[in-house]
Amino acid sequence: MKKIIFSITLLALLTLFLSACAVEPPSPLQNGSYSVTFDDFDSTGWKAYLVLHVKDQKIENVEYDYIGSSANGGILKSEDSSYAEAMFSVAGTKPELYIRQLVESLLIHQDPDKIETVSGATTSTKDFKRFAELAIEAAKKGDTSPIIVSQNE
What we know:
By secondary structure, the chain is an alpha+beta fold. It has four helices and four strands; from the N terminus they run αβββαααβ. The chain has helices at residues 2-20, 81-91, 95-109, 122-141; strands spanning 32-38, 46-55, 58-68, 147-149. The chain has a four-stranded mixed sheet with strand order 3-2-1-4. Helix 3 (95-109) runs parallel beside helix 4 (122-141). It starts with a helix and ends with a strand.
């Protein structure tokens, strides 16, 4: 009789332990567009933004760039040919190239943690991954409110 009670107690404890250790599956992404941007321009006059578009619980499209302040003509960094030339001569990449690489990587992997840092665009890669993480968290909740990130964080 003691063996039966012991076995039932052990089985109950084991079941309780295993159910407590179960990993919850990740929340599916909700359809919609999720935007993230800095609150202000950086010291060089650029402000990063990302818009993540989700359809059928997958990231379908990503827009990522930096908009210039009035000092930068209010244009996108990816469209600033003089900036691109200067960056390419020093870093071996330019916004048009690294942005495409980052976006394609996120579309393929669907996970910011699997995006490798683009050589010559370390800060932009860091901003992209951070923004993608925030947008994905919002997409899991279905919260399409714009996310504003402090430039000083």
